[in-house]
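Throughout our pipeline, every protein is held as a single compact record rather than as scattered files. Nothing more is needed to write down the fold, since each code stands for a local backbone conformation. The record that follows is passed on verbatim for readers who wish to inspect the format.
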Amino acid sequence: MRAGKLDRVIVIQRHMVIGDDGMGNEILGWGDLVTLRAQIVTASTEEFFRSYGIANDYVVVFRTRYYPSIDPADRIRFDGRHFDINEVTLIGRNRGLEIRCVRIAE
């Protein structure tokens, strides 16, 4: 993985405690876990047949350096949009990650 190909910046977000309401109750929300340099490997619109008809999903695969504990429960913020993580694939022996995502409709 060459550093010159990592030309995008993504933010991995995790659902976590982001504060409290002053009454001792925790406020849950999406907080930034880590900012990483990444490469877009593929970006496409895929049509899937669903029970209610055809739906378009914008699928992106990011390639980035290894960071421990990223999983499908997290999400990615990139270019002002949010993406659900579908799959995280390890590249080599903790050398890098390929993260397959679908854009969240907003």
